[in-house]
Amino acid sequence: MTIQVAAPAEAEAKPRYKLAMYWASACGGCDVAVLNLGMKLIEFTERWEPVFWPAAMDGKRADVRAMDDGEIDVCLFDGGIRTDEDAEMAHLLRAKSKVLVAFGSCASEGCIPGLANQRSIEHVLAAAYDPELNDVTDGQVPNGPWESPYGELHLPTLQVRLQTLAQVVDIDYSVPGCPPETERIAEVLGAVTAALDGTGPLPPKGAVLGAGTSTVCDECKRERGVKSIKEFKRIQTLAEVDPDLCLLEQGLPCCGPAARDGCGAKCPAAGAPCIGCYGATQGVNDFGARLLSAYASVVDASEPEEIERILAGLPDTVGQFYRFSLAASLLHGGRS
Amino acid sequence: MTRISIDPVTRLEGHGKIEILLDEAGDVEHTYFQIPELRGFESFCVGRPVEDMPALTNRICGVCPEAHHMAAAKAADAVYGVTVPRAGRMLRELLYNAFYVTDHATHFYVLSGPDLIMGPDAPKAERNILGVIKKVGAEVGGKVIDARKAGHRVIEIIGGRRIHPCTGVPGGMTKAISEEERDEIKALADGMIEFGSFSLELFDSMLADEAIEEIVKGDLYTHRTYYSGLVDAADKVTFYDGQIKVVAPDGEVFGQYDPKDYRDWISEKVEPWTFLKFPYLKGVGWKGLVDGKDSGIYTVAPLGRLNVASGMATPRAQEAYEKYFATLSPDGTPVHSRGATHWARLIELMQAAETVQQLVNDPEITSRDVRAIPTEVPTEGVGTVEAPRGTLTHHYWTDENGVITRVNLIVGTTNNYGPIAMSVDKAARSLISKGTIVTEGLLDRIEMGFRAYDPCFGCATHTMPGQMPMLVTIRDKDGNPLKELRRD
To answer: How many CB atoms lie within 10 A of CB B333?
Structure first.
């Protein structure tokens, strides 16, 4: 969709800020969440001039290169840093933007694709181009430049680890969520406009925008009661999921106690445990450490065998505790 | 050797690139259409509990997470050998058909509409959704926004969220819908059908335009390939479940199979110059990027689905299907022109809208019986749906604890990678001859070729479907730029 920007309706000369949005290694969901602003998006264009947004409008890398440093007022950068090209774009947009925002889970903490850091890049390539499942000639699989009969063809090179935006360049803010909820995006754009206009507070550098400072549990409508569990259960083994009771208390490994609020607790409301897509809550550096301590406080056991049996109910500890945050975690993923 | 690099800078920025190599005489020697990204889902899904897969694989694509969610849930059902209760299955299908209405509407009006409704020769400044609304009226713009919203609302009610749904689990769904929610969907369904009728009528009136007719019937994007897609038990087009039917370029049935046997039928060719793979029919073989009966390349998505099925599953869509074939191929053999995909897409939109209405009016749709508890030991399972952009297959292997040990994914657009690359090559060859490069039409034609397929490299890699402004650099044999063309 080409966003055409109308001139401001009134000539009262409020400044119009320059906005960029870019996706690195992403799924496009962040961009769809912004597009879902619909009519609101058109209203925002009265105050924001989109100067670079590959998902929605015309624009070229060369145009960004031609800009002055700091020419873009705000850049929303989504997607993780998977290839050398992603890293190059991160450096370029950092230089050209006054305010660089890590937008969405991938840029903020690596998201699901960050789970690739649990294994080597060789494993990634071996699984994607498994010769038993694919037709591979002479073991030739893609990664990096390739010498064609007509000269070299450029193909990006996968980095050893997927990195978050902040691991590659200096960032100003982050907006969590996979994807960020559209209503939260509207609030962020409104608040940033006010800050630039000088009519609202400028958030401190490093602030998390578009989310709360509490946990998903705090905005979840489910009732909490017994406070302790004897075992973890997998949803496909649970004949009945009580529609009103806390999912963790029913034994489902919900991430609510560690996850930041702001999403509206939609997954638990729909009978699915929180998977932690809004990242760790305020003041917590490591999602997994926080979730583990939350689980420890509800697990009703004191004997080592009993604890072991309860934890065996979680078949994938890395995925459970670092589903969205492995790349950003204290573990950093990373076998190379 | 002259080398032309087309670096599609907008919607394929950094994620799709075309290299055209000319021979000494100045004719096209070879075209490379590269997809330069890989995230590695087949690797990092290993070790995860199978019930996490619907949520994990949503993140393959934010444009069509519903398709991955459904394929993953179905693969997880198959891993446990569990049958979803009727109401649970209906909820999945209801969500999925509502998603089709939204997705097809977006493609037709927002992405392709500018070409079709404004005409390919309209000024560039008018060839966007605002130009479309201006031409057809704000009322129509409102209809499009409402139809998309209606689909999103149904997805949210049944799937829990608008993007990346969360309710599909092995054996069914995490939640039923209430009677109030059912009534809300009922009202939305009526609007969807009206929107489908309106869109088909609009297309009829557009066909009177010669330029549009040329897009739909013309030869530039005609490739005589095999076609593949799901059909139901009555041999009609279906999206959520069915058997895969393959027809040859002449329309002869090549075969029909249960999706779980896909490995007997297709393989994927790995090339070292692109991260995306080229699926092909094993029984025909890989002959490179060429069409015809001896090449295993096949086409999927609306064009493929209508070519393999004997009709549509709902009455209004069937009526449109009959008109489509009467116009484009009266003897019922496959329609090969890629431009016809736009029409086929609207016929599917109508079927999806009618299916939403049928399902929401089923008395059992509010049943609480939406999930079955698996009793078998988990092993291996395949889940296949028709994504809007082609057949989507998830194949999982697990240990006896239901933890993933191996994954194979063949996503919708990937199936069409070969045909898309062929259309790019054909467009290049039609405009480059003996050193003369018809620069004017080159970018337009390549772009329109792309749009017909509605390629979602969000699935295949990550880029959204749509308009593709480009930068073309023509270099001399030493790599010095001779000429630069831009399309904004």
So the answer is: 15
Q: What mean pLDDT comes out for the span B287-308? A: 97
Q: Pick B3 or A255 by higher pLDDT.
A: A255
Task: Pick left, alpha or beta for residue A45 (phi over 0 → left; psi -120 to 50 → alpha; otherwise beta).
Answer: alpha
The C-alpha angle A55, A58, A60, rounded to 5 degrees, equals: 95
The SS3 of residue A201 is coil
Place of tokens 């100003």: A172
Q: Which of B1, B10, B268 to mutate to test binding with chain A, by most A CBs within 10 Å of its CB? A: B10
With an 8 Å Cβ cutoff, are A28 and B463 in contact? yes
Which residue in this structure is represented by tokens 């000269």? Answer: A151
Contact A137, A66 (CB under 8 A): no
Query: Is the distance from CB of B215 to CB of B339 less than 8 angstroms?
Result: yes
Q: How far apart are CA B279 and CA B408, in angstroms?
A: 13
Contacts of B475 in chain A (CB under 8 A): none
Percent of chain A whose predicted confidence (pLDDT) is above 90: 70
pTM score, two decimals?
0.93
Q: Which residues pair with B19 in a beta bridge?
A: B5, B32
CA separation for the pair B289, B116 (Å, rounded): 28
Nearest to B129 among A1, A127, A158 (CB): A1
Q: pLDDT at position A2, please?
A: 38
Burial class, A233, CB count within 10 angstroms (exposed 0-12 / middle 13-18 / buried 19+): middle
Quote the DSSP letter at residue B112.
Answer: I
